[in-house]
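Sanity check

After download, print the first record. It should look like this:
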Amino acid sequence: MSVLAIDPGIENGIAVVDEDRRLLLATEIPAIGEGANKRLNLVSFADLIAQFRVSHAVIEAVSAMPKQGVSSSFRFGRAAGSFEGALSALKVPTTFVSPAKWKKDMGAKAKSEEDVRALVIQTWPDQAHRFARKRDHNRAEAALLALWFYQHSGFRDVKERAAA
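Expected C-alpha cells:
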C-alpha cells in the first residue's frame, strides 16, 4: 500500500511513497494542448494508481494566487479539480492540506524551490536523478507532501492497528 501526493496545477508534481517511506515514483502528469486549451492528460492516471496500489492520496489544498491572471487561475483550478475528480471517481480516499501547514511541519516553509529540491535529494539520495532539473521542484514538493502525510496524519498507525 502506498500514498500518492499531488502538487496540483498544469505544472504539477506527483509522488508515490510506500509505507516504509520509500520513494517509488516522482514525476508529473503531462499537459496537452496550447494556451487556454491546455489540459492534463490523465489517461494513465488510473493505471498509475493501480500499479502502485495507492490506498490514499494527499493533495496540496490550493487556491487562486494574488496577481495571477483570470485565464491562468482558471487553468490552474481546472487542473486541480481534474485530480480531485479522478481520485473521487476511483474511490481513493483523499486528504487536503494547506501549503503553509505541511511546509511548516516539514521545515520547508521559508525555503526556495531549490532548497526544497535539495531537501528531497538529501532525504532520498538514491532517487536524486528524479530531481536533477530546476523544474523538478513540483515533484520535490509532492515527495515531501507524501512524507508529511506519513509523519503527521496517523495513517500508518491506523493501518497497523487494523492489521493487529
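If your output differs, re-run the checksum step. Summary of this record's structure: The first helix runs from residue 45 to 51.
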